[in-house]
Amino acid sequence: MPAAALRRHRTVVLVVLDGLGYQYLAARGSGGFLHRRLRARLTSGFPTTTSSSVATFATGVAADRHGITGWFTHLPELGVVSTILMARPRVGGPPFSRSGVDFTGLVLAGPLYDRLRATSIVITQRSIAYGDFSAANSGSATVRTYSTLGGFIDRIVSAVRSGRGDTFISAYWPGFDHLCHHRGIGHALVTRHFRELDRAMAGLASRLAATGAVLLVTADHGLVDTPRDRLIDLADHPPLAACLTLPLCGEPRLAYCYVRPDMLQQFKRYVRDRLGQCCDLRTRAQLVRQGYYGAGQADPRFAGRIGDFILVMKPGWCIKDFLPNEARFFLKANHGGVTADEMYVPLVVVTP
Length: 352
Known about the structure:
Elements: E1 11-17, H1 22-28, H2 33-36, E2 38-43, H3 50-59, H4 63-66, E3 72-75, E4 80-83, E5 88-89, E6 119-125, H5 132-138, E7 142-146, H6 149-162, E8 167-173, H7 175-183, H8 188-208, E9 214-218, E10 224-225, E11 231-233, H9 238-241, E12 249-251, E13 254-257, H10 264-274, E14 279-283, H11 284-289, E15 309-313, E16 318-320, E17 333-334, H12 340-343, E18 344-350
Parallel strand pairs: 1-8, 1-9, 6-7, 6-8, 11-16
Antiparallel strand pairs: 2-18, 3-4, 4-5, 9-18, 10-17, 12-13, 13-15, 14-15
Helix pairs in contact: 6-8, 7-8
């Protein structure tokens, strides 16, 4: 959507429905509000995961410049693998800020809101609103919170009505993604929640109709079902684990492998011979050169956050490892990969 099309609107509302992929909406939303107002199919950021895409929404740049590269992100400057959305080490412990680390410096690009001439308002779930990751990405924006879907809609409407002058409102809803992960994409509860969201967006559009605000609805990624029999547990592959200098990073569907220099050939041979039916092996240089992480000038610190090799999982497949203190758990649907279901997201546009 060209920026010029938004200039006549004093208020822009961006709603991000976590996990609501274009393919899902196109296949299951026929006749609904979101489907009727569907304007375009967009590509997600890469990897197709919340941490990276939310950082792109918040900073206005791709992963090669903001440096958030997956659920588990290696931070060489701290010598640790992090659970980046929680802003703490993967192994556990308090958030980095409680150890004296300024987390804003670990997000390699500053918030978009600090560069806008408009008033900025971020609307997010109360349980995550004030953590280090959210604080680093919200910058100078005013943060408003909610705990229910009804509260989410009310906060958006209130923000629009309270606006004075040019206003940008960014609102994030995580519920659809959460249900897909734990129930699977085709589960009745997922379908029910999708219909709730569709009605909620229709109601929101109706309440905004007289305000002059433009409503944009999109997503950070879609998901694919990942059956238990298509999970690779690294513990079942000791020769592969022996090649690695760090735990797996990234995502279960896009795993970053940091490989011992003297075991490069053994690593590549094992993946080719034992895992070739499950994943494609790519080097960091290949994916960077092909523009997966962005087309601009990468931040110099970015390269250390994506591993030497990347396992790009084929449809339905995941790979996981577990630290000694981690509970073993398996999600029924995942994201992070390059299938159409994960990569494509909708753009819904509602103008007054």
